[in-house]
Recover the amino acids of this structure.
């Protein structure tokens, strides 16, 4: 996602000002690539949001017989996003072929949590473990939001020339 940002060669000048000869100052256009400027923080926020939903679902089903607790491996998915998709990609030779590399879905990345003490009714949710994971996830989400806020403040300062 690229955005055009206008920058002026001399402080205090703007497009309406003129220099000798009555012509306006030339405007220099610089492109800001938000993917490079923000790094992996937006992807981390997306993953943390998905993990929040999974953990909340586990807690909500703590008393459901035969419910198996699920986990979204945040660290593994984030490192995969950092290093690119580690899975082998297949090429299609015809436009009518089925996409061999479908977009990753949360269902494909969910894992079953191994219970410390499974319940007699087959439920594998340990409420204390889930609540601790939920609290840790909330802290990571908040820290990522603060980091993203700092990045945006830095970009705004750079645009303003402060």
């Amino acid at each position: 996602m690229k955005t055009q940002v206008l920058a002026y060669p001399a402080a205090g000048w703007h497009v309406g000002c003129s220099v000798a000869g009555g012509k306006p100052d030339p405007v220099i256009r610089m492109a800001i690539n938000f993917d490079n400027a923000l790094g992996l923080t937006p992807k981390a926020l997306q993953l943390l949001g998905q993990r929040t939903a999974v953990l909340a679902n586990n807690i909500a089903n703590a008393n459901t017989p035969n419910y198996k607790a699920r986990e979204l491996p945040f660290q593994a998915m984030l490192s995969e996003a950092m290093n690119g998709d580690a899975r082998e990609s297949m090429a299609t030779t015809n436009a009518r072929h089925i996409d061999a590399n479908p977009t990753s879905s949360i269902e494909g990345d969910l894992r079953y949590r191994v219970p410390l003490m499974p319940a007699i009714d087959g439920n594998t949710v340990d409420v204390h473990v889930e609540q601790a994971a939920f609290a840790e996830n909330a802290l990571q989400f908040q820290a990522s939001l603060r980091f993203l806020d700092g990045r945006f403040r830095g970009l705004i300062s750079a645009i303003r020339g402060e």
Q: What stands out?
A: The longest helix spans residues 127-160. The chain has a mean pLDDT of 74. The first strand starts at residue 2 and ends at 7. Residues 39-160 form one domain.
